[in-house]
Amino acid sequence: MKAKFPIAVTKGGVTSRIHRAIQIQNGRRYNGYMVVYSFRRKRKRVWRSDLSEAQIAAEDACNKITNGEHLSLALTDTDKLSYLRATEALNPIGLKLDVAAQEYASAVTLLGGRATITEACRDWIKRNASELPRVEVSKAVAECKQQAKADGKSAMRTKQLSNVLNRFANSFNVGLQDITPALVSQYLAAMPLAERTRRNHRDVIGFFNRFCVLRGHLKDGTNWLKGVQKYNARKLGEISTYTPDEMRLLLHRADKRLVPFLAIAAFAGLRHAEIGRLDWSEIELAKGAGDSFIEVRADKAKTQTRRLVPVKDNLNAWLLLHRKAAGKVCPFKNTTKQLLKLASVCRMTWKKNALRHSCISYRVAECGNVPFVADESGNSVQMIRTNYLRRVKPAVAAKWFSIMPPRKKAKGWKLTVAHL
């Protein structure tokens, strides 16, 4: 039975029609079929010489319009060729053309013309060519503590690393690669600790992070603290200091081995940890005024910057009584224990960091030059003003720096009313 023309082809509610048609090319007549459909309210025609091919073309037009792909029908031959080449390149990796275009645009925007996408990819592959071994947090913590001990870190620093990192390892029983800034942020936020203590924990975790990168346990650029809250290190509340009378009492009642530590902290303002690392060979004492200095070497300073601290006349007198050619200025491993014991003997409450606070406060009152005192103390001017400085009268400062050793008698020292 002969087909009746036009033949209607309907798919998904869209209809195309096939008509008999004659096409003339170069003066010759060709019998064929014309597929007619409506696109954007315009009549579209597709010529085919064979009826079966015309039916396929009609169905294809209906399907594409139904699936929302009718825009592809408006492509020019050049655009269509570009489309085919693009899809052919993406087929092996199973990526859609629109997704690839979005990825490409994002990459070009990030690079900002500084490199091509291929160059950036090659650089990334080069830096991440070798897969890092999986290392548990507990194992890396043990390595970090061992390295700190081998580097000769102070007992106080070693204890701090041990306390913070042991707690960290107990909370993160995972591999180093599994730790993210979000986890570290949640860990610090959940700590029932003061803000200053959280700041200390954050700093130690950052130190541990850098150690793991240097050891090759983590990739270069890994930063666990990226976006993690920076806790306030400022000391809140009133800054504690000692009076001249309290200082005299502490020096008189102290174990003689502890006296150089107390005198240097009170009259030169060195940090406790810096005094703990100090050697007698780094203290230059002279009989003349203004000729004595304490050298705080860069490797022993908290700020890792060398500084020379002038020795006041009264400090010079105290140190001359105990000086040695070389050796530790403070022989105690646990100075804090000795200080608490001394405070108990004197029936006083030990004030944390009050010796350094006192020295800085009295020095500023004496000379009136905060930047000068900040340089001596190894701190910024802002830090001195907010964390160390308590305003006192110059007359009280004069009494502080006139505290001299009591006269040595045959049976030891005796504190008299005149000394107080």
Overall description:
With 420 residues, this protein is an alpha+beta fold. The chain folds into four domains: 7-74; 78-121, no CATH class; 137-214, DNA polymerase, domain 1; 244-400, Intergrase catalytic core (hpI Integrase, Chain A), CATH 1.10.443.10. It has 17 helices and seven strands. β1 and β2 (14-25) form a beta hairpin. α5 runs antiparallel to α6 (155-171). The longest helix is centred in the middle third of the chain and has 20 residues, at 195-214.
How many separate helices?
A: 17
* Residues in helices, as a percent range: 40-55%
The parts where pLDDT drops under 50 for at least 5 residues are 410-420
Shape: rod-shaped
- Name of the CATH architecture of the largest domain: Orthogonal Bundle
Class derived from helix and strand content: alpha+beta
Over all CA atoms, what is the radius of gyration? 41 Å
Mean pLDDT across all amino acids: 86
The largest sheet is: 4 strands, antiparallel
Structural domains: how many: 4
Beta-strand portion reads 5-15%
CATH-derived topology of the largest domain: hpI Integrase, Chain A
List keywords for this structure.
single chain, 420 residues, DNA polymerase, domain 1, 4-stranded antiparallel sheet
SSE layout:
Elements: E1 7-11, E2 14-25, E3 28-39, E4 42-48, H1 51-66, H2 77-90, H3 97-111, H4 117-127, H5 137-150, H6 155-171, H7 181-189, H8 195-214, H9 244-253, H10 259-267, H11 272-277, E5 283-284, E6 293-296, E7 307-310, H12 313-320, H13 335-345, H14 354-367, H15 370-377, H16 381-388, H17 394-400
Antiparallel strand pairs: 1-2, 2-3, 3-4, 5-6, 6-7
